[in-house]
Each structure stands twice: as structure tokens, then as C-alpha cells.
Amino acid sequence: MKKIINTSLFLLGTLSAVQGQNITQQQEPFKGVVGTNYANSKESWVDPIKAPSNAPNVIWILLDDVGFGASSTFGGLINTPTFDSLANNGLRYTNFHTAAICAPTRAALLTGRNHHRVHEGGFSHRWSAFGFPGWDGRIPADKGTIAEILREQGYSTFAVGKYGLTPDQDATDAGPFDRWPSGKGFEHFFGFLGSATDQYEPDLVEDNAHVTPNGKHLSEQITDKAISFIDRQKSAAPDKPFFLYYAPGATHSPHQVEPKWRDLYKGKFDKGWDHYREQVFKRQKELGIIPANASLPARNPNIKAWDKLSADEKKVYARFFEVYAGYLTYTDYEVSRLVNHLKEINQLDNTLIFVILGDNGASKEGTLYGTIKRSPTAALQQDLSEEEALKVNLANFDLIGTPQATNGNYPLGWAQAANTPFKYWKQDAHAEGGTRNPLIVFYPKSIQDKGGIRNQYGHVNDLLPTTLEFLNIKAPAYIRGIKQDTIQGTSLLYSFAEKNAPSRHSVQYYYIFGSRAIYKDGWKASLAFKIADGKGGKSRNVSFEDPNHIDWQLFNLHEDFNEQHDLAKKNPAKLEELKALFEEEAKKNNIYPYITWDDVTDRRNTLSKQ
């Protein structure tokens, strides 16, 4: 039986080189003759797999915590000329979605599957992983990554920046390394394994070992390394294509950047977050990013009107966003170094580039008042009063954006501004503000509608099948002898040439620690989650207009793209249909048991006592 199985795998493997139907690189059975001596023996060699002639390079760029309305590319007031140029020579996708938080988004992106399906319901950290199939933070081998697939199709595979999918228990130099990037198909890696790191003193890894940072900003280091990987490979094998996963820590907190960048926008946001939202909303309409008849949601009631703030509050809060804006523009600059290098070595026109501007919505983790550094007085600024927080921030004002701002993040008002035109923010899987992020697709050789806008519904798990279809590679049945699970993503390639083609990704669930939603053909049912803080039941979660009344809501996104008109009472039958569909998806995708933020808090508290 064993011999038969091995033979069948060999046959599958040989088909891969010809048809691209399977990419397992099995050791082929010996086809020669072994005699008693060399003269009566016949040699047999296995030819290495090579990518098709003129196969394009592929780059996936994934930023962190950006928000839909931050970049100038999608109507924001923060200059991102590199992303503007890529979009103006490619396509802008306005209806693209992430999982609402970092690790689930990255797991879905790299595997083309739903995040609970690949065991990444939350994070791979000990304090948020649970011993259930959807929650243990350990991506199984039958959920192969894009790097594993392309490596076995003759691509070099590199990753730089944030990985975020290695279990804490495995993240030492002792390994095991099967869930490090090197164990998931990347031949070289340079970056950090966790969810966040200091930008000047990062927890830095190269390949399978921790290394000492060189003092430069992390974004500069990863760009240098990406260019080095590319040049080294092209020098050795000029015709061999590469796959690069470029995932900077930016613009996740801590917001740290050099003075010339953090001072670039000095005075530019003195009119505040209300003015910012109005200006961005206007620009988004002018660019055709949002419907012409759209309306801007009201400011979240937890956020003060800018003109009601004191002079000190305006000073501090404006500075937070000046630094953030400089940080995003700097990130765009580092991407420009990569793009310009590709142009210099005559590879840009032969490189398919996807840019996702954020792995979730803008972050609410800076609290209502903004955070600067971790200290005995400011470690938990959400527990400070407004007066106490302002006092701490004024005392540390000059540190905002510096390497000493080890917890630097803007206040909540700027999160809503950066998410214009949507409500809510990062972590809120029930809302477009948590899950809708811009996508740019660039490949000048075949995209004719340069600067075109695409409104088809998409999800982060679509990039893997899109890339495979573009490269004429079929999803493998086996990877390294392991039968592969189904892929839930849907290729977006159909929409490259057909601006008005109907969406093909018709159903998608969302679930992050209690917050949930289900989408089907333009309809969306959603349920927010209220976090208890153990202080008389008062909610710490600043997402909700009415924290005492949280029910399922229903929206028709075709007519109400930014979720302002709840139709639950008008159309209860549709709501019940979608709620039932969510339960079906929950069972299929390992969402059960429902783990919430309260469960995470309890787990963290338990671990802290051990």
C-alpha cells in the first residue's frame, strides 16, 4: 500500500511541472538502471522545477492600522505619493475587507482561507490563544501559504517586517521553526514575529535567529533587506521570479519616526478631527471613492467636538496626528525606495503588486486621550480621568513621536477621522470601519484601465486565489505530501478588465472576540460586543452609541454602504436568514466556542498570576 501511495504522489508531482495543478516537490522514484558497475548502469537525474519563462515577480504589501480615510490615495489628507502613483497606474478597490484585527487578517491573507479555519481566531499569543481548533493560533500544515505554493513553482520567496503568526512558545531561537516564516514557505525572513514592536529597538529576527538591531528605523531596515534579497537573487538567477511579502510595523503603535517626518505636518491639523472628516469626505466624493449621494455619519458620542476642547487638549491631540501623518508619509517613502529600485533594475513592469492599506481599521487603542509611553503613571491610560491623562500627556509632550514614545498612539477622535467615511474602528468586526481597507493592484503590462476604480466586494482571503489565477497556477491538492484543505477566497481577476462585473465573493463572515457580522450579496447583519471592565458593569469599549442596547442590526450595503440605516425592524425575515447563515459559517469554520474579549481578559489575568 505504501508503494502505491508514493507512486500516486509522484504522478501528481510530475503533473505539477506541466500543468500547475499540484506543487508538491516529491522526490521522484529512480528511473535509471543500477547495475553491478558503472558501465552497465544508467544514470537518472531529477530536473529542478522552474517557473515559466517571463513569469512576473509578485509583491504583497500590507500596512498596519491605517484606516480607510488616511491616505491621499483614498481621499485622506496624508500625502502618500507612492501609493497614489501605483493606484493611478493600476486599480483602486473600494469594497475590500480585512478581518478587523492583525493576526486573523494575516492568516487569511497568506492562506486564502477564513481565519478561524486556519486556527487564528485571535492571536498566536499565550494570553489570547485557546485550546480549540479555531483558536489555538497554530496554522496547520494542510492550510498552505502563498509562499509554499510559489516556492514549489520555481519562485524565490522572501518576507520582511511583521509576521505575527508564530506562537509565543515557539518564538525563541530554539524553535521549533515550523510556524516561523521559514516553516511556512519563506526562504528568507527579516522582521519580527509578534504583533507589535519598538521601531528603533525591535525584537528582530533574521531567518531562524534573533539578531541585534542596527539603530535605524525598522522600516528602513526591512526595505534595505528586501532590496538586498532581490539583488542577491537576481544576481544569481536573473530570470528567476520572486515573491516578496512586505509588511512593515507601520503604522501600528508605537508611532515613532525621525524629526523631519514627525514635523512634516506641523500645524496642518490644528482645525481638528471634525474638519478633517468633512474635508476627506468631500475629497472621497470628488475621487469617486464613495457614492455621490453618501452622507457622513455623526461623530461618535464618546468623542468631544473639536471646538469644545481646551487649548491644551487641541495642542496635544493635534500633535498626536501630526506625528501619525508623518509616520504614514514616511512609510510611503520607504515603499518608494523599493519601487524605485525595481525600476532601476528593470523589474517594475514585470512585477505584480498588491497594496493593502491596513490590516484593519484605524486603531482605537490610543484611548480617548492618546498615549505616549508606558510608565507607572500611564501604563493603563484608559483608567485615567480626562484631567489626569491631559496632565500626563502635557508632561511628555516633547516625546510624542520619538523613540522614547514607547506606547505612542493617537486619541480616538483621530481614529474616527482616519476611518472616514465609516463608523467604528479596529477590533470591531461588526462594522465597516473595522473591516474595510483600501486595496491597490498594479501591473502595467495587463491593466488597461489605469487609475480605474473597482467596487466589487472582496476579502483579504481573495489575494491568494487572485495571484494564482493571474499566474495560471491551480491551487495544489498536496503540499509536501500533505493533502490541502479547500480555499475560501475568490479570485478578483475577473474584475481587472470588467469594471462593472458582478461581485463573485458572495458570502463572508466576521468574528473578533464577540463582535461579529455576516455578509451575503450586499446584505449585512452585525452584532457588536460590549466589554465589561469589572467596575459595576460599565463598558470600557468606546465603540457604541448606546452601550446599554446592543442588538443585531441589518444593513443593505448596496444602498447604505456606510451603515447608517438599521433595517432590522423593517425586515426581520432577512435578519433571521442572515443570523442562521452566520451559525452555518460558525460551524464550518471553527468559530465555536465563541471566545470574547472578556474571556481573553480572564486568560490574561490567570497567566499573570502564574
UniProtKB/TrEMBL annotation:
Signal peptide: none
InterPro entries given in the database record: Alkaline_phosphatase_core_sf (IPR017850), Sulfatase (IPR050738), Sulfatase_CS (IPR024607), Sulfatase_N (IPR000917)
Protein name: Arylsulfatase
Top-level lineage group: Bacteria
Keywords for the protein's UniProt record, in alphabetical order: Calcium, Hydrolase, Metal-binding
Protein family (similarity comment): Belongs to the sulfatase family.
PANTHER family: ARYLSULFATASE FAMILY MEMBER, BLL2667 PROTEIN
Coiled coil: none
Pfam families: Sulfatase (PF00884)
Gene Ontology MF terms in the entry: hydrolase activity
E.C. numbers: 3.1.6.-
Limits of the Sulfatase N-terminal domain: 56-472
